[in-house]
UniProtKB/TrEMBL annotation:
One of its GO terms (cellular component) is plasma membrane. PROSITE patterns: TLC. GO terms for biological process: membrane assembly; phospholipid homeostasis; plasma membrane organization; regulation of membrane lipid distribution. The keyword tRNA processing does not apply. The keyword Transmembrane helix applies. Its main location: membrane. Keywords: Membrane, Transmembrane, Transmembrane helix. The chain crosses the membrane at residues 133-149, 169-188, 200-224. It comes from Trogon melanurus. Residues 34-230 form the TLC domain. This is TLCD2 protein. It is a multi-pass membrane protein.
Length: 230
């Protein structure tokens, strides 16, 4: 069995256990008790986004290894492969959690998003290639911290507080920098390096970017309309 798959399995189990025990760690307020699974789900997602290794490795290592920008196929810093495998385990756990607890018409967008990420990251884990590409994609998780905090504040009926307002501003700023700009850079890299990437992998990457970019632009519009032009 591939060590990467063992890390994926261990990550899945760890996030599953965390999800089960979160109500004891972070009891839901009265406003969130009708939707307990969602409360646990968001906190589990926040835990994944806030993992120091993800942000430190994704951002700092990208800066410390300038060669990554030139070779996202075979170059990656130590530990990056395990980091991507841990994220695959999380996305699998979140996929299963939503599938079991939420109606399909309410979760199909996120299920679709997770499917794309699992396939793309899974290729990197299995082939030990394109890990650098996946590492850059994990920069998106920096913004996810504030997206999840926003949901937690909404569920706790704190939408009219200063904390929510500040989080909304930071959320929007990090969304542009770490989500839209990062995906644009990845799309550009993929286009410029199409001759160095096998056709099958290039097709998967292109389809992935073609799906993720519109989804993120639509979500940005929804956030802007909800938090600033309501």
């Amino acid at each position: 069995v591939s060590p990467g798959l063992l890390v994926v399995a261990g990550s899945f189990a760890a996030f599953r256990l965390l999800n089960r025990g979160l109500e004891r760690l972070v009891p839901p307020p009265s406003s969130a008790r009708r939707n307990r699974w969602k409360w646990r789900n968001i906190w589990t997602s926040l835990a994944h986004s806030a993992l120091p290794s993800i942000h430190n490795c994704s951002l700092c290592r990208f800066c410390l290894y300038p060669g990554l920008s030139e070779d996202l196929v075979g170059t990656h810093p130590p530990g990056a492969h395990s980091l991507v495998a841990v994220s695959v385990g999380y996305f699998l756990e979140d996929f299963v959690d939503m599938l079991c607890n939420q109606k399909l018409h309410q979760s199909w967008e996120l299920l679709f998003h997770h499917s794309v990420v699992i396939v793309c990251f899974g290729i990197a884990v299995l082939l030990h290639q394109y890990v650098g590409f996946a590492l850059v994609a994990l920069l998106v998780e920096i913004n996810s911290i504030f997206l999840h905090l926003r949901q937690i504040l909404l569920m706790a009926n704190l939408a009219h507080t200063t904390c929510y307002r500040l989080n909304s501003i930071v959320n929007l700023g990090t969304y542009v920098v770490f989500r839209i700009a990062t995906l644009a850079w990845m799309t550009r890299w993929l286009f410029l390096n199409r001759e160095n990437v096998p056709p099958a992998v290039y097709a998967v990457g292109t389809v992935g970017m073609a799906i993720m970019t519109p989804m993120n632009i639509i979500l940005f519009y929804r956030l802007l309309r909800s938090d600033f032009f309501k």
